[in-house]
Amino acid sequence: MATLILPGEWIKNWEKSGKHEFVQLCKELTEKTDHGSEIRDIQAALYELCWQVVQGNLKLDLVASVLGDMMELRDDMPSILADVFSILDLETGALEEKNKRDHYTQLVGACLFFVPEAILKERLDPETLESLGLIKQAHQFNQKIVKIKTKLFYKQQKFNLLREENEGYAKLITELGQDLSGNITSHVVLESIKSLIGCFNLDPNRVLDIILEVYESRSDQDEFFLSLIKSYMCEPLTLCHILGFKFKFYQEPNEETPKSLYHIAAALLHHNLIELEDLYVHLMPLDATIIEEHKRDISEAKQIARKLVMVVLPSEKNEDKEKEKEKEEEKNERPPDNQKLGLLEALLRIGDWHHAQSIMDQMPSFYATSHKAIALALCQLVHLTVEPLYRRAGVPKGARGCVMHPLRNKRAPRPAENFEDLRRDTFSMLCYLGPHLSHDPILFAKIVRLGKGFMKEYQSDGRPDIKDKMDTLLSCFLSIADQVLLPSLSLMECNACMSEELWGLFKLFPYQHRYRLYGQWKNETYSSICFIMLSQIQWYDNLIVPVVDSLKYLTSLNYDVLAYCIIEALANPEKEKMKHDDTTISSWLQSLASLCGAVFRKYPIELAGLLQYVTNQLKAGKSFDLLILKEVVQKMAGIEITDEMTSEQLEAMTGGEQLKAEGGYFGQIRNTKKSSQRLKDALLDHELALPLCLLMAQQRNGVVFLEGGEKHLKLVGHLYDQCHDTLVQFGGFLASNLSTEDYIKRVPSIDILCNQFHTPHDAAFFLSRPMYAHQILSKYDELKKAEKGNRQQQKVHKYVAACEQVMTPVHEAVVSLHPARVWDDLRPQFYATFWSLTMYDLAVPHSAYEREVNKLKVQIKAIEENPEIPLNKKKKEKERCTALQEKLQEEEKKQLEHVQRVLHRLKLEKDNWLLAKSTKNETITKFLQLCLFPRCIFSSIDAVYCARFVELVHQQKTPNFCTLLCYDRVFSAIIYTVASCTENESHRYGRFLCCMLETVTRWHSDRATYEKECVNYPGFLTIFRATGFDGGNKADQLDYENFRHVVHKWHYMLTKASVHCLETGDYTHIRNILIVLTKILPCYPKVLNLGQALECRVHKICLEEKDKRPDLYALAMGYSGRLKSQKVHMVPENEFHHKEQPARSATPASQQNGPGSTGKPATSTSKTEEGTSEDGDRGKDKSQGTAKPVNKANSAAAKVTTSNGNVFKKKKQKTKKTLWSGKEKKEKKEKTPGSTPETKAENRREKQRDERAGKEERVAREGKEKTPKADREKVKPDEKSNKDDKAKAGNGEPVEPSRERDAIKESKSKEKGDRSAVAGSLKSPVPRSESAESERDHKRRKLDSHSSPSHSSSVKVSMA
């Protein structure tokens, strides 16, 4: 109570100054007029003074005199002092100190002179009164109080009803029921009522009841009756009791509370004549009953939902029917009305949102609005609230709408004039309404249109001062969409128009907001049929086609929800994306991918979310979902990636875009223009084009080194292929659909791609290649416009100039991609040229153009002859086919001109491609390593391109490029390449080998072709003169027959590698070599004995893998069948390459190996070089070949000179033929048993000589096998000297080109081993090291005696 404290100085100096200061304070407090607060301050001052007396700080008589003086300040001062005494009475009564209680009693006794006893008897405790002597006994006093209170408050007075006259009530009703249209006011009527009450002695409460009854019957006269009741009533509680009695009357079963009663109760509440808390307790049912009812309804609804998806047996059906009958019987006795809901509806009708909100807060969520009447009443209130704003910002153009008149109630929620006003009441009303906005589709449309109007302002108004407000409003609209619009749409009765209206708003939101709304919608409020459909498709992929077709009946919003559902299904963490065997992707993921491609192509669904999902998965290092992107691009853009293309399709893919579309794909891609545009727009709008490319390029290696750690090798290969194929497909889509400006703006330069983004070089050039083509064409067009000249020569020069301007920065950029020593062998210009060109630049597929044009002609003819087609449709189809035909012909002409320009440019550039300071072996090694192999396995088109590029470089007579050596390196060592390929890469590598073999076969099959395309070409020089760039003389060229021998050797090497891979037992080796063999079947095998060797091994695979690995068995069986069909085209070895008969007399003595050898070639030569033959095959990967001792025959055959390099000169052709004829004779003797004693004797003599000549070498070889590596290196002085030669080469000193010498000696060194060799049990390859001769010898002895490529490497080729 104490709000002010008397200063201690006043107490100490009370008589001097304290008393005066206290009296002055009380006077000031008395003079204040602060609406009753002055009484509290005076009470506090008096309390402090009295408390000082109780404490003993002031004398009793001094304080009593001051209190007596204070009585003059106010009339009610005794009452105020009595209140203070009452507080002190309670406080001192609770104290333990008796002296303080005594001080208090003495103080009150001293004040009895100026405080009336009656007041003290009202305020003080009876015990205190007894101690003061005011009463005799406290106990008797208490009993007397109880009796008085009982008489006053509980005893009913007898009232004589007969004193009330009925005439008074009749006049009262007449007075209240009169016409109120005139000057009759509530004040006039109230005076009349008072007169009636006084005259007829009416009960005032009954009069109030009659007033309410009349008001109920005349509820339209709100203003009059409310004013009357407000003037008449004395206490609100009395009015509440009367209303409660009225409500209680209708709380019986089958009774219905009239709406008029609800109305007057709502009106009285709205005008604050009664309190809601007082009336609420009189209404039924109880809140607890409402909660139980709500729970029961929810449980029944869930049970009904479960029954919809359950199969009900007949016995269960009978039980359910009985239960339903019982429920119907229970419902016959209708419970009383829910008076709380009735009052709530009435409050909403008159616009009293405040009290309505209070009632709804007492009930479960959405319980009230689940009743249609209340939902409609609340909707009507929202209508009125949003009307002005809707007229300004929501009405569509051309729509008039129905104007709504506002409520006359001034206390109703104020209408919203701007979007900020919606936050006041409207959003709150909508949240209470929730999903039951579905009862009013018109209001639903209004809210959606207001949302669209707001989004237009939000997107157009970028002022920073209102940004926070706009963001808050955006959050509000998103909440309304989540809690109201989407749930309401679920409850609407198939209103597709509302769905489209809502999509008009939702499409203005970013997809992130939309998908979050859909997630809430699905997980918390609604389970869409989309999820059921997707779950079925994941199990049954044959449903995809009918489902996709049926989706045409969906709305735009449904399509967007479907996109979200697909993404959620893909991201389901409970689903395994691999099958249980961990080797293949799960079928559910494949089914969803197929569905994605079909749905997104056919229907206008936004792609951003799906593309972002794939991007995020790639960022996380997961590549499974690339299957989705692959299907989407394939279906929407019509770009297929498959390694099963036919040769016709592959040829068509080398042409222009029109030819690709018509003849390059399996499917029909005619109608993909719109879907391609949608995909392109999605990628560009969300800046996903380049990130997807870079992530895919990086993920290829991530699949192997990061993602594939614990996965099965087969699955890793499949994921790698999927990632690579999707990259090729996606890059092709971007190249063909993006404009030049868009592409160049997004793809950085090659050095940035490789060095900053760590993109593999093949992928980087793949992405940059279209950019170079665009830039060259743009620059070419600029130059043509700048200087107008129609001559072809001028155009070509301008094209070359354009290429130089565009490609010069590229030449400079690629230098940083590789170490500096690489550019000692290749020029950056050659490297960039190889990687920047495509098959479109090298050749025109005339036959493919002609084939497609003929198809169109046949189609036109068929249209003309078909009588069932209407004339107008005939005309359209003919026009379409004719236009296509003209486009193809124009495209062919355009490509032809382009190819001519490119070839002219290459002709000018070729002299600067390869440097003369490196050996040809080094040059070819770098070319294979950095150019040919990486690109030939990139795509099928690139495989063809690589083969054709090698042929083109040869045809251009490129200096320092050895065609023979290039082909030799490609065909001679395929084991490692095949083993390192994935399945799809094997297809491409096989296609590359097939194209290379096609060229070789063409040269091999016709002498005229060979002499036209190979003779006098630098690539076929067996000796290269440093002084000239011409084709050399005839003696330096490899003639036709020797080339056939070399081709046979290549076939043999392919057979040897194939047999090795087939016999390893390794899954990857066998699968890949079977794929490669299937691809090269048109060109290999051509020799009968090699084909038989392959057939034998493949048959063995079929037997071994039949029950173990079915996929290998299927591959082997397929190849075996096709191989047998090719047998008719195989020829014996002597027809494949010409075997000359030996001419002994023509053999010089220098070629004989000692006395008594009549015309026999020096077999010791073969034996001596036998150890080096394998090096001749395997040493091609080394930078320089291993220098070996050369026998006397070779010494006589080759003369070594050095001028700017090491040059080997060939011996005369006659000597060469003699060597070959000797070998043929020896081979013939071994194959054919002697028929005469002389022959047999000669054979025995030759055999003895062979054994004597080779004995020493065999001993040395066996010693090598038993000698450790360190000792073996000591035994090889020639190899050590070779290392020295390598060191000299590094210092720029001339070194003997032992690699070329090995190539020269290859036929003789190989022949000895080949005599006893077929494609036998080959062991796994060993590293190509200098100490590997023992293993090679061991393998040589393991070869069986089928057939050998005699003369296979009998060509002396000397390379510098």
TrEMBL record:
Residues 316-338, 1136-1360 are annotated as: Disordered. One of its GO terms (molecular function) is mRNA binding. Residues 532-593 form the THO complex subunitTHOC2 N-terminal domain. One of its GO terms (cellular component) is THO complex part of transcription export complex. Residues 1208-1217 have a biased composition (Basic residues). It comes from the Eukaryota. Residues 9-394 form the THO complex subunit 2 N-terminal domain. It is found in: Nucleus. Keywords: Coiled coil, Nucleus. This is THO complex subunit 2. It comes from Amphiprion ocellaris. The gene is THOC2.
